[in-house]
Structure formats: C-alpha cells, structure tokens
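To assess whether the prediction recovers the assembly geometry, we first specified each molecular entity separately, as shown.
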Amino acid sequence: MTITFTTETAVRRPAAERAALMESPAFGEVFTDHMISIDWERDRGWHNARLHPYGPLVLDPSAQVFHYGQEVFEGMKAYRRRDGTVVTFRPYANAARLNRSCARMAMPPLPGETFVEALELLVGADRDWVPDRPGHSLYLRPFMIATQPTIGFYGPSSAYRFMVIASPAASYFTAGSTPLTVWLSQDYTRAAPGGTGEAKCGGNYAGTLVAQAQGKEMGCDQVVWLDSAERRWVDEMGTSNLFFVYGDRLVTPELSGTLLAGVTRDSVLTLAAELGHRAEEGRISVEQWRADAEAGALTEVFSCGTSSMITSIGFVRSADGDWTIGGGTPGPVTERLCAELAGIQDGSRPDPFGWVHKIA
Ligand SMILES: *Cc1c(COP(=O)(O)O)cnc(C)c1O
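The predicted structure of the complete assembly is given in tokenized form:
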C-alpha cells in the first residue's frame, strides 16, 4: 500500500520573525511553520497523510494516550552543509527503532519509506529553519500516540496518529566542553527485565523525573541508571548511552533489554573500530567503575546520543562516595570521536559507512 501525502503550506512566519526565533534557541521551545500527521485506524490502516501548518491538536479527552500511556517517539537532527544541502543521519535506523518500540507497545508499525518521506517533506517545506551555524541543527521529533476515544481498558487502541515536529537547536559544542558530573541513582530504577526499557516511550521518561530532581539536588547534571535487580551494573544515562575508555579499548554496556539501543552508540562502536580502537559491548559494575578510575586504568568516560552528541563525564557522585575520571577534563579519545562524527555529519570528512542521507 502506498501512502500519499497532501500538502498545505500557505502559512509561514515572516523571515525577520524566524531569524529572531533562531538567534539563540532554547532546546525544544521553538517550532517551525509546519508539521506532519498520519492517521491509523484498525480497519483502514495508515491514511490521511498530510504536511500542514504547525498548531495545537484537537483530541477527545478520553483518547487512550492520556490514560494508559501508549506513546513512542524518535529523535533525529537535520544538518545544513556548506554546499547548502540538508542531510540527516541514518534515518532508516530510527525508522526501524520506532517500529521496535511500536511492537513492544502494541502499536502499528509505520513503513520505513513513509517515515523518511515524512522527514523529507517537513524539512523541505521548512528548510529555511535549518540553522547554518556550525554545530547547530534542526531537531526532528517523530512520535506516535493512541487516539481511540475510550477509557475502557479493552486492549490496544484501535486508532493512532503519527506526527513529526521540528525545532531549531543550538550548538552542542558550547555546552559540551565542560565534563559532566553524574549521579548514580540507587533509590530509583529506570527499567526492569521484561519491561519497556529498550522502547523509546514517554513513560520511561516520566518515571525518571524524580531521580533527575534528586541528582540536581546533589549538584549533578545527569542521572546514571543501574540494573534493577542488583543495582550494580551500569545501564545508561536515560537520554544517552555510556562508553568507558581504557586507553585504546572502549566498552559500552551490552543491550540487555533494559537500555535503549542508541543510533549514536551503534555509530560510535563502528567508528571507534575504524579509528583503530578495540570497541566492545560488555558489563561494567559500579565497583569496577570506581576502582578502575581510581587506579587510572579507566582513562575517560563519555555519553552519546543525538541531542547532546558526545559529552565527556568527569565526576561521579553516589550515596557511597564520589570519584573523578582521568583528572576531570575531556580526554583525547572522546574529543577525537566527537570531531570525527561531527565531521561525517557536516560533510567536512568522508562518510565511508553511508550514514548521511540527503533530505532537502
Ligand atoms: C534516545 C535515547 C538514547 C540515545 O539514542 P540515539 O539514537 O543515539 O539518539 C539513549 N537512551 C535513551 C533512554 C533514549 O531515549
């Protein structure tokens, strides 16, 4: 079945207003002129695909998403290159992950070509919103919600809406230069075996807000999540994945089912091997993290994800004590990987893996 989009692009904000909004965008507060919507119903499948002006939704208050939380999302970026073209990064990997999240949440899959076509249409219509300053980008947020109007909990919703919205994002380089201080959450957990930890769903975020607040109170920037059974094994950071650098060897927690399979994580594993590192998936315990950092064997730790790219972690705080990694300054492996990945995205370096996809 082919899904055909209609387009309605008559309404645009004036160039001066757009320029003012793009001057120093706070992340996720400003949105472009348009959005994508596609509806799904049990007996019709996907239909009513449209590019239309950005604006509030009209939904029945009984729509299932408000009560039982069937919602999944993705996060991607569009980059403007020096030659004026606009590209995105591995969009089919995000399309595939959306569908894995949908499968876990009993929601219908969206064809990968339709997902990518939706991005192309939206970025094409709003290409003036893609920043041209180095490191800046247009953040893309595809998501899907359950819209059947019923509070009867009879099973999965019989209706859904897939949407894409877009928001100009400032440089990660300015924020990325100071290493983060992270809080090891021992009171709360994010995901349990058999749960939804590997789905990119809003519910995973709602359950972590209280730990974020606790981390902030402890003077930390981000929360690190441990496994829920032993509270001993490192999972991830809740919006990004973690890498542990031992000189020339990199280790990232294996995909145990309780952490999100980041597209950036997968890219770093490939890129690090290409640059001559040993890049492995494994298990890291809190005791090992601390002992190896204190002994100097663990030289760097960084987080990686689409929104904050590659960010150095310098300090760890936990109920059992604090420790520093590699002197608390960004290390050479972290900086090199960040520069190489940014170079592939902005076109200043070759893309031997075919990761970059032109969208406008
Ligand atoms: C999105 C996300 C990540 C990072 O994934 P990327 O594809 O690299 O952006 C990591 N952890 C969680 C919980 C996430 O939601």
